[in-house]
Amino acid sequence: MPRPLPLLTAAVAAILVAVAAVGGLVAPAPAVSAEAASAPALPTAPRDSSVSIGGCPVETAHVGSRYFSLLRSNDRAVFSLVGALPAGLSLDAESGAIRGVPTTAGSSRFTIVATLHGDRGEYGPCVIDVGPSLDPPALATGCPIDDAVVDRPYRFAMAASGPEGMVYSATGLPAGLTVDPATGLISGTPTVPSSSVIAVSVSGLGGTSAKFGCSFTVRPPDRPEIVSCPAPDAVVGEPYSGAILVRSDVAVDYGASWLPAGLELDHSSGVVSGEPTVAGRFPIIVDASNAWGGYARRSCEITVRES
């Protein structure tokens, strides 16, 4: 009687399949290409969420330029992000507004999350690319024109055009002067005469800058000028007060010689005061000097009358 070979063969085949499954002899999975593995995921939103999100920001961003984009969702959803916005930008959770001034070029990737009545929706990944500054800074004022004077307050305001957030600097400034990096104001009171070269510059976000080398002189103050003498008339035994008036860049020290008896001089204010005791005409010499060698003198006269 012939053997049932087809039936036996089928049984053997079934046994071999079972053994292969137990022993881990499974067919390899189809190969995935490198391009497919590295391809970015497409923006998706969960199908089981009732929260809808309008999409990713599409506005162009540049370093130093104001940026604004409005995220959209149904009803009054509250927004948040998974990931990070570019430096200088922030999200208003209630309105969905992304705004600010980007400070660094580059790309930032994030996912938008919207929450409404306990339900949550997501959309992403989104990307904001920040390009370089469109408006590099330029110094409009150039170098300081006027000399500074020792012991006299000095001010010079640099001005520049360019992006927001510019930073001013000035190196090599004389002693007593400083620069405000936010406004570009050079100010202070120089303390010593000097002649030097200073470097003034303004830098914008993204590293762009404009720079000048400038000659800068701090000169000694002009010599004082005596404008008027003390009041010429006095009366014996009555209070007297008269001032030496001086035009000067800086503080001066006053002097007076041969004052009538009973009168004296305040050397810091230039005021002559007191009660004269003797009548007569008194020629006097008044002078004024500053700490930098400036000096002036003048002949004056005080007449003291009998009471």
Automatic annotation (TrEMBL):
<dbReference type="GO" id="GO:0016020">
    <property type="term" value="C:membrane"/>
</dbReference>
<dbReference type="GO" id="GO:0005975">
    <property type="term" value="P:carbohydrate metabolic process"/>
</dbReference>
<dbReference type="InterPro" id="IPR015919">
    <property type="entry name" value="Cadherin-like_sf"/>
</dbReference>
<dbReference type="Pfam" id="PF05345">
    <property type="entry name" value="He_PIG"/>
</dbReference>
<protein>
    <submittedName>
        <fullName>Uncharacterized protein</fullName>
    </submittedName>
</protein>
<dbReference type="GO" id="GO:0005509">
    <property type="term" value="F:calcium ion binding"/>
</dbReference>
<dbReference type="InterPro" id="IPR013783">
    <property type="entry name" value="Ig-like_fold"/>
</dbReference>
